């Protein structure tokens, strides 16, 4: 049985894909409740920063620092340097990653700073990103700064 919070992140990624965007989704969980959910909206909003993790944080709204220090961030794809920096900035202690085969983010940095990093290598996450990268390499390359 799949983790329901990873499932919620995957559903966010599918929403982004259906909107014509990049299929990366994220949720932030505090005390077993999703307090923020989001998906990559760089294409849809013409944004340089709205990765899935950033959108989920934005949608969580302003929180007390203690909330972040007790939260877990779920993301369908390994977090990039920008998102990893934000995880560190707010002291999020645990990150659950759907997959890191199509993109390896800053997992070593997160671990070096004490963040618990769990990589699930979920087949659906891998398949979704693999298909997107094959179908729309120009959008993917733009997203990762190539």
Describe this structure in words.
The chain is an alpha/beta fold. 46% of the residues lie in helices and 18% in strands. It has eight helices and five strands. The chain has a five-stranded mixed β-sheet with strand order 2-1-3-4-5. Helix 7 crosses helix 8. The protein is globular, with a radius of gyration of 14 Å. The termini are far apart. The relative contact order is 0.16. The mean pLDDT is 95.
Q: What is the overall pLDDT average?
A: 95
For the largest beta-sheet, the strand count, sense and barrel status come to:
5 strands, mixed
Strand sequence of the main sheet, in spatial order? 2-1-3-4-5
Categorize the overall geometry: globular
Going by helix content, strand content and strand pairing, the class is: alpha/beta
Question: Radius of gyration, Cα only, in angstroms?
Answer: 14 Å
Say how many strands there are: 5
Helical region count? 8
Task: Give a summary of the structure in a few sentences.
The protein is built from eight helices and five strands. Helix content is 46%, strand content 18%.
Throw out a few tags for this protein.
46% helix, five-stranded mixed beta sheet, alpha/beta, 146 residues
Itemize the secondary structure elements and their pairings:
Blueprint: H1 4-18, E1 25-30, E2 33-39, H2 42-45, H3 52-60, H4 65-68, E3 71-75, H5 81-89, E4 94-97, H6 107-112, E5 116-119, H7 123-135, H8 137-143
Parallel strand pairs: 3-4, 4-5
Antiparallel strand pairs: 1-2, 1-3
């Amino acid at each position: 049985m799949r983790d329901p919070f990873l499932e919620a992140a995957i559903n966010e990624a599918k929403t982004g894909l259906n909107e014509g965007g990049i299929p990366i989704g994220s949720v932030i969980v505090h005390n077993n409740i999703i307090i923020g959910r989001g998906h990559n909206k760089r294409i849809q909003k013409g944004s340089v920063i709205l990765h899935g993790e950033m959108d989920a944080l934005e949608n969580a709204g302003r929180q007390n620092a203690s909330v972040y220090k007790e939260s877990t961030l779920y993301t369908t794809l390994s977090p990039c340097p920008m998102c990893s920096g934000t995880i560190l900035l707010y002291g999020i202690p645990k990150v659950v990653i759907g997959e890191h085969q199509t993109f390896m983010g800053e997992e070593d940095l997160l671990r070096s700073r004490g963040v618990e990093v769990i990589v699930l290598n979920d087949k659906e996450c891998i398949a979704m990103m693999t298909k997107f990268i094959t179908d729309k390499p120009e959008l993917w390359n733009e997203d990762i700064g190539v």
